[in-house]
Amino acid sequence: MNVYYYPASIVMFAALLILIQLCFKRSHITSYLISGLSIFIALFMQFVLQNQPTSQTNSSNVLFIFNAQTSFVAFLLLMVVGLIWAQLYNWLKTINEQKEEYYLLFLLSTIGGLIMVSSNHFASFFLGLELMSLSFVGLIAYCGHDQKAQEAGIKYLILSAIASAFILMGAALLYLQFGSLSFSELLQNTSSEILPPWAIITAIIFIFTGLFFKLSLVPCHLWVADLFEGAPLVTAAMLATLSKLAVFIILWRLVTLGNWQQYQIIIDIISIVAVASMFIGNFLGLLQKNLLRLIAYSSIAHFGYLLIVLLLINNNAISFSSQSFNEQTLFFYLVAYLFTLVGVFSIFMQLPKTKTLDDLTGLFWHKPFIAITLMLLMLSLAGIPLTLGFMAKFYLVMAAVSQQLWLVLTALVISSIIGLFYYLRVIMTMLKTPEDELKFSDIKSDGRNLSLNILILFLVIGFGIFPSSLSQFIQQVTG
Fold first, then answer.
1. Cα(first)–Cα(last) distance of the chain, in Å?
2. Considering 73, 141, 177, 204, which has the largest number of Cβ atoms within 10 A of its Cβ?
3. According to DSSP H, which parts of 141-263 are helical?
């Protein structure tokens, strides 16, 4: 077996082990330890593989591509999953459901994400996508007594199936044109003209529609707030991080390998969706008092910003620009956004009764460390200096300026100013004088939560103040 399959195989073995354990004896702590051990062994294995030479065959039907970039993304995915796993035990103890099956679905969705980030073929991509999506249906509707969770699960099942149908239709049209489902073949066989150009563009739009749904980009964004609000907190965190990371990597790889930016209408579609997502996401965020809905609309805006990376591909308007720099911009932004968002959901899990902005009133005066952590994370999402989020936006602005993308750059700046308001509103609410002195008395901060908060702060603020080490590591990966 190729050594690059080891991380996913380790997680798969752990899922089977939990399934076998369920046949004999239920044990929450055992399932927790098995899942955690597998994630961290896979994480260590992925780190070791980071320095391995590229492993990719010359076959046109190769299912996976293994190189420094895919190893880095898989490492990032496992790190995010590990940080979420650290919160699972305490959170699951608060729900009145069986605990062990959640770990099983949690690991299966992780395997789906690992398959997707290394996919170089529509077959492997769709296998990973469906494994992840079907696992998420169970994860979203896990709390059987919660009507909102059941409703969110049904919505995700139906809309996810529709999105997958669009992707399959687009893949079928591309197969008719190129005679292959390999991503690499999308560029190599462009000389044949079985289908007219408009049919190829239609296929690309179908695939974009499905992927835009998974990324909750405008106009496929209407589901995301209901799901974030209805799903269990850990599931919402996985939807916002694992799912979107895997899908965006697929989108980026398809546009890169397929040379889809050769069609002006595709560039126009990406630009319109990016600008619309920036403004609509931030404007809807302004109207929200529910914290999970606020984060949901914030994610729409952030992935609108990230679409700028697709407009940079092979668009070397100025000598300063390079494909390597564009990849560095992508990876740096993903690291900044994912770590910050995991931190935000970590704080929410430590405040289980906090649902709305009003519930945060006076948090600073009762739990100052938790409040300060959430403040700094919100500042990072807003892109305030000395945070990792600021450096990520700085990279993105540099790349956009270098390639003269003035329209999307203007939209980024204006929409970021709009978004700043609701991030600061969260901070100001925590600083208000508390009305109820016993409001936060039941919140217990144990050593695990404290350690996790410190780690996330170190990543978000440490790399924000001293970004060179992260930049150099990413540069080595993309170089």
1. 27
2. 73
3. 147-178, 185-188, 197-214, 224-230, 233-238, 244-258
User: Cα-flanking dihedrals φ and ψ of residue 275, to 5°?
Assistant: -65, -45
Question: Cβ of 161: how many Cβ atoms within 10 Å?
Answer: 13
Give me the number of domains the chain comprises.
1
Residue 209 located in a structural domain: no
Q: Which residues contact 79 (CB under 8 A, 6 or more apart)?
A: 43
54: region left, alpha or beta (phi > 0 left; psi from -120 to 50 alpha): beta
- Other C-beta atoms within 10 Å of 195: how many? 16
Q: Name residue, tokens 């069986």.
A: 98
What is the rounded CA–CA span in Å between residue 274 and residue 301?
8
**Residue in 154, 326, 158, 356 with CA at minimum distance from that of residue 252:** 326
- Domain span including residue 369: 263-479
For residue range 99-143, what is the model confidence (pLDDT) as tens digits?
788 899 999 999 999 999 998 889 999 999 999 999 999 889 887
> Which ranges constitute the DSSP H helices of 353-446?
363-366, 368-382, 388-402, 406-431
Q: CB-based contacts of 335: which residues, under 8 Å, 6+ apart?
A: 76, 388, 392, 463, 470, 474
pTM of the model: 0.91
Q: Which residues contact 58 (CB under 8 A, 6 or more apart)?
A: none
Q: Give backbone dihedrals phi and psi of 66, rounded to 5 degrees, phi first.
A: -120, 115
Distance in angstroms (rounded) separating the CA atoms of residues 449 and 176: 53
Asked whether residue 63 is domain-assigned, the answer is: no
Say what the alpha-carbon torsion angle 115, 118, 122, 127 is, to the nearest 10 degrees: 0
